[in-house]
Amino acid sequence: MNRAAQLDKCFNNILRGKVPADARSYPLLLEVICTQQDPATCINKIVESSHGSNAVQAAMRHNTSSQFLNDTATKLLLYLFRAPNLGDVLDHLLTAIVDPPIFWSAFSQAFDQGELNEPAQEAFAVLLLRLMSLTMGNTSSYRDVAKKPSTLTRLLNSSQQTVKDIGYCIEDILSTFNSGAPTAAVGGPGGRHDNDFVDFREISILPTADKILCQQLPFSRPSSVLEDPDGEETRTADYLDNTFHLLREEMLHEMREELQPALGKKKGRHRGLIIDDVTLEGVYSGTDDRKTRWGIKLKCKDDFKSMKNVPDKQRKHYLEKDPVGVKILKHQSLVCVLSGNQILSLATVHRVEALLAQKPPVSSDPIRLIQIDTAIFAFDPVLKALQNTQFILLSEELLFWKDGNLIGSASVTATEITRPLAMNPSASLLAGLTQRLSLIQGPPGTGKSFIGALLAKAIHDHTEQKILVVCYTNHALDQFLEDLMKIGIPDTHIARLGGRANAQVAHLGVAGKKEHVTRSKADWTIIDNLKNSSGFHCDSLEDAMDRFIASKIDFKDVLMYIDKKGKPVDAEELIFQWSRGFGAGQFKDEPNIRQAADIWGMPPDARQKMLEQWKSEIRKTILEEICTLGKNYNECQDQLTRKFREGMVATLMGNRIIGCTMTGAAKFAQDILEEAGEILESHVLTAMGESTSQMILIGDHKQLRPKVNNYKLTVEKGDGFELNRSLFERLVLRGFPHENSDSPTPKLTYPDLTDAAKTQGHDDIRGIQNNFIFIDHTHPEDNDPRIANRGDGASSLSKQNTYEVEMVWKIVRYLAQQGYGTDKLVVFTPYLGQLSMLRDVLKRDNDPVLNVLC
Fold first, then answer.
1. Please, which residues bridge with residue 468 across strands?
2. How far is CA 229 from the centre of its chain?
3. DSSP string computed for 746-789
4. Radius of gyration, alpha carbons of the chain
5. Which residues of the chain have pLDDT under 50?
6. Which end of the chain is less packed: N or C, by CB atoms within 10 Å?
7. Contact 328, 306 (CB under 8 A)
8. Nearest Cα to 390, choosing from 242, 248, 206, 236?
């Protein structure tokens, strides 16, 4: 048998567990891996084996000498990096190699001290960037390595262009963490409550009770700070930090507005469900065949009012189908848990109809739930995406563009289209096809959507680029996708994310498309390992929760707690005596008792207080165990979700055009964003994927701004936070070149458009100077807490403006005096609150014309 055959035999025997990997076989194992013809196949074989990853891990940390790092270790890493598109499978193996960090510490130290040769330097650089870019787990330790001045300097000053380019990528990632915020002591982030941290990535999306009760103003920067030339070094990190804080404060504002009436701190009626007397029942982690992230189960004392007369067999159907039943504790809705009027926690609902349909047992615990209408689902994906953002694509245009700068060119252009356009120019089309970032602006009816469809058609037909179409609403998305099909793009090339699609585009949904994914044995090995770990953590979690609920802490538990070594004490007589205020009895003359005279001298009430403190600490220890186990379980579930979502991702990537709303884009190319003038900047930022090479913003910043409910954060308030200033408007105001859609579009779309005869020859309106009048005022709007705008999922309150209502009332009265009856007068308003107030005002008027208008 020749050497190659011997090596292959050794390799296969180790993977099958026939031969244990040891110090003698480690060099052979690493050598034979590098001789395998196909790196991808080899890595899959290692990962799918129950012994493979552990063997490679042991081999890589067995020898950390400079010679090993520069030779065998480097050859292995460079071999592994040759495998294309392995994703999680390669990450799984690399994570095994560097964690625990025995090899990694030696490798990074050798690079830092200049002990690595050029191939080893390249291997280190590629590995560091890959570890910093991991999507699961904590990558802060790898950033700490990259942040060392000596490490970053060596990368950027390398004589190898590959290493230098990687250094620039690493520097770009680090820039998103290098904030210029002041310290907490002088008003910076961190330290206000138990969920306020300097690094916004550590902040829990849902607020804690401390945050809700905190009276200190949250940390936020005015937008002008981000334009400061002296802050360019930290601008990227400051921008991400501020975008997160402002959007989260908007979410918290809605929560406070909902909670205050329920807590009696503000006049008004709370419209959400209130459930009194609930008790903790245990852990919920899904069903055996469909696990979820963990949560707690609560039992109600009384049945829901609307369900008291529902027959037992119909209860589940009532919750799933009845118009009233489906609104009871909606899935992903927010609830506040209180004891009396003291806020304990906020949580989201995981709706399980089978559990809700059960008739609840009686419990007398004074705990209650208040359902809050804040649409957490509209904020959560975007906020999490901001926390996970490691670099900002197109940052030169979005953050650092100055008047006179050249705009970057699109990486791929449809030359068959752009060359003729250059001869007979349509500025908006040419910009959309040639620039990395383009803005197309125009008022309603000027063909912005048609320009967008033409751009998508050109990119689809003449390049291989994938297009992500993002719109503000489902209605706008459906309309745009219909335009794409009408213009000749096959529906088989289009996928639509999300629900609530109209009949014309419903078939584009991902659920109706066949998955395009084939999982390897290595993938299934990772999945099986995660399921096993998840099951272990879940069982431990349920056990810990059961112990906490029982809370039968006896003297033995207390003795185990106060004994530093954690060993139980056999006799319980002394603590029994002590807890009841008695003396030590027959043990009073023992040396240990004499040395603890101060303890035995404590009065009975102090002894009880101390005993309760010990019991509380024991419960706290169990709670900490529950939190740790829950965190480990959730990490497994998140990785499993990500693995199984690969099928949907592959299905999406099998299409050339993917359409979604802003929330869908944050959950999951080349971007076309419709109605960009009405979209919050945070939503545009998180819609960009890692491979985004070009973005086209289509909208009109002179129409409606993005909707924000916290007036203090708006442009109109004037405090400088400007949350409702869209990215589109910000770039236009900065002077970024933008093209108008109104000049070329009529020629392209409606060359023979003329006014209909019935629109001509009308008399001028009596009593006014012009037939079109636009009125501008500075009176802010107020809110009507009685009426919710059902069409707006992100707002719990409708809009109204008292000043405008009074003005409309006077205008209507005046026009009635000019002889116009109800058949000639129409008042339009987009808000239910405004409509309600208009009706109230007009009804109060005794004029018969105004009464009829109501």
1. 658, 671
2. 30
3. HHHH-TT----GGGSSPPPPTTSS-S-------PPPEEETT---
4. 33
5. 185, 361-365, 555, 558-559, 561-570, 669, 742-750, 787-796
6. N
7. yes
8. 236
Q: Are 342 and 263 in contact (CB under 8 A)?
A: no
Tokens 């200033």 sit at which residue?
725
Whether a cis peptide bond, with omega within 30° of 0, leads into 20 is no
Q: Is 656 helix (H, G, I), strand (E, B) or coil?
A: coil
Asked if 152 contacts 132 with a C-beta cutoff of 8 angstroms, the reply is no
The single residue listed with the structure tokens 């008027």 is: 845
Residue by residue, DSSP assigns 604-641 as HHHHHHHHHHHHHHHHHHHHHHHHHHHHHHHHHHHHHH
Per DSSP, the residues of 72-92 read: IIHHHHHHHTT--S-THHHHH
Instruction: Please give the structure tokens belonging to residue 47.
Output: 């990962």
Helices (H) and strands (E) in the chain, counts: 35, 15
Q: pLDDT digits over 684-738, tens only?
A: 998 887 788 899 999 888 888 888 989 999 999 999 999 999 999 999 999 999 8
Q: Strands, DSSP E only, in 551-681?
A: 657-661, 670-673
- Per-residue exposure over 94-133, b if at least 16 CB sit within 10 Å of its own CB, e if not: bbbbbeeebbbebbbebbeeeebeeebbbbbbbbbbbbbb
Phi first, then psi: give them for residue 196, nearest 5 degrees: -120, 110
List, in sequence order, every beta strand (DSSP E) within 104-149: none
Residue 361, helix vs strand vs coil: coil
Q: Could you give the angle at which helices 88-98 and 118-132 cross, rounded to 10 degrees?
A: 110
H, E, C per residue of 139-195:
CHHHHHHHHCHHHHHHHHCCCCHHHHHHHHHHHHHHHCCCCCCCCHHHCCCCCCCCC
Q: Hey, is 225 helix, strand or coil?
A: helix
- Size of the chain in residues: 854
pTM for the whole structure: 0.76
167 near 155, Cβ under 8 Å?
A: yes
- In the Cβ-directed half-sphere of 742, how many Cα atoms lie within 13 Å? 7
